[in-house]
Design brief:
- The protein has about 300 residues and is α/β, with parallel strands linked by helices.
- It folds into two domains: about 100 residues, Rossmann fold (3-Layer(aba) Sandwich); about 180 residues, Rossmann fold (3-Layer(aba) Sandwich), CATH 3.40.50.
- About 35% of the residues lie in helices and about 20% in strands.
- The protein contains nine helices and twelve strands.
- It has a seven-stranded parallel β-sheet with strand order 8-7-6-9-10-11-12.
- α1 crosses α9 and α3 packs across α5.
- The longest helix has 19 residues.
- It starts with a strand and ends in a 15-residue tail after the last helix.
- Bound molecules: NADPH dihydro-nicotinamide-adenine-dinucleotide phosphate (NDP).
Length: about 300
């Protein structure tokens, strides 16, 4: 019998249990109780000390793609960590990003405001290829979003730590690539993980390096961005529009200035979620692999932070 413990305040245990048992009928799916024999933990933000009773644990699976809150814990057992990555999550993220970029590229933000004022203003559509998008972070989700944007006809540049090759996407890396990607974009999409290296990477200097009137889409993590610098840039017009899905404090407090800014679109951290039916295939395979002494799928490098 292979036992797994599940913990999340966001994800549905019943859906995960059904999806995992479809892949591993012998799985003993637990939500607490006896810790003995539990070899895998499938968790999102478990409370401090959560892992201590699980002496037989061989694998920690993060219930999501962003592992920043997991890898910075000081009670993490020295075990392989795996993140989720499934086709459903990739599709949801690509749909959010292509929608957000399209919103600006097609001037829908202007027409929405006109609609509220009862104004009919013909705004001549521009070719999508004339809209330059820079995707910062070309990982499992970022790379797929960049590809989807390129497939729609946008002119897409991507930036990552290492050199990449993605059809239809000009891929850059390094400090020079960072400046180029930011400086050319009509819309900048943030899809970096939050690590010590990426914290605050979009600061006042980064905003100054962007074209005046740039649009920003942040689906990565809020702390990639220096928030006071963003607010200043949105007020001055250096950043014309922003679509934000991630915030320092969630729910975003009622008194936060973003709520009152006409040029900020707010979504409640819904850009993407894992879809149990598709993610469970890889979770089951990761469990089988670690039990055979092999590394799991989608292994996270805890020292690198993603
Ligand atoms: P991955 O971990 O697969 O990829 C991260 C990418 O960022 C890689 O291309 C990596 O470069 C690049 N990167 C990391 N550090 C640096 C650095 N210091 N300088 C330059 N590039 C860097 O992430 P995903 O694409 O799967 O997801 C991105 C983020 O999206 C997640 O970390 C998470 O925070 C967020 N997310 C948000 C959701 C939401 O609903 N809003 C849902 C899911 C995820 P390289 O390829 O060279 O290693």
């Amino acid at each position: 019998m292979t036992a797994l413990v599940f913990y999340s305040n966001f994800d549905e245990p019943e859906a995960w249990e059904a999806a995992l048992k479809a892949q591993m009928p012998e799985l003993d799916f637990r939500r607490g109780g006896d810790p003995s024999g539990v070899v895998a933990a499938l968790v999102w933000a478990p409370p401090p000390g959560f892992f201590a009773p699980y002496k037989d644990l061989r694998l920690v699976v993060n219930l999501g793609a962003g592992v920043d809150s997991l890898v910075r814990r000081d009670d993490l057992p020295p075990l392989p960590i795996s993140r989720l990555n499934d086709a459903g999550m990739v599709q949801l993220m690509a749909s959010y990003v292509t929608h957000a970029v399209t919103h600006y590229a097609r001037d829908f933000h202007l027409m929405e405001r006109n609609r509220l004022k009862g104004v009919w203003e013909y705004i001549h559509p521009r070719a999508l290829s004339s809209h330059r998008v820079s995707v910062m972070g070309l990982g499992e989700l970022g790379g797929a979003a960049a590809s989807a944007l390129a497939g729609m006809g946008f002119t897409v540049t991507g930036w990552a730590r290492s050199a990449k090759s993605i059809a239809g996407v000009r891929c850059l890396s390094g400090a020079e690539g960072f400046r180029t990607a930011l400086g050319e974009a009509d819309t900048v999409v943030l899809m970096l993980p939050l690590t010590p290296q990426t914290t605050g990477v979009i600061d006042a200097a980064a905003f100054a390096a962007m074209k005046r009137g740039v649009n920003l889409v942040n689906v990565g993590r809020s702390r990639l961005v220096d928030e006071p610098a963003l607010i200043e840039a949105l007020r001055s017009g250096q950043v014309a529009e922003a679509t934000l899905d991630v915030f320092d404090e969630e729910p975003l407090p009622y008194a936060h200035p973003f709520w009152g800014m006409e040029n900020v679109r707010i979504t409640p951290h819904i850009a993407s979620i894992t879809v149990p039916e598709s993610a469970a295939v890889d979770v089951a395979e990761s469990i089988r692999r670690v039990l055979r002494g092999e590394p799991p799928l989608h292994q996270v490098d805890a020292t690198r932070g993603y």
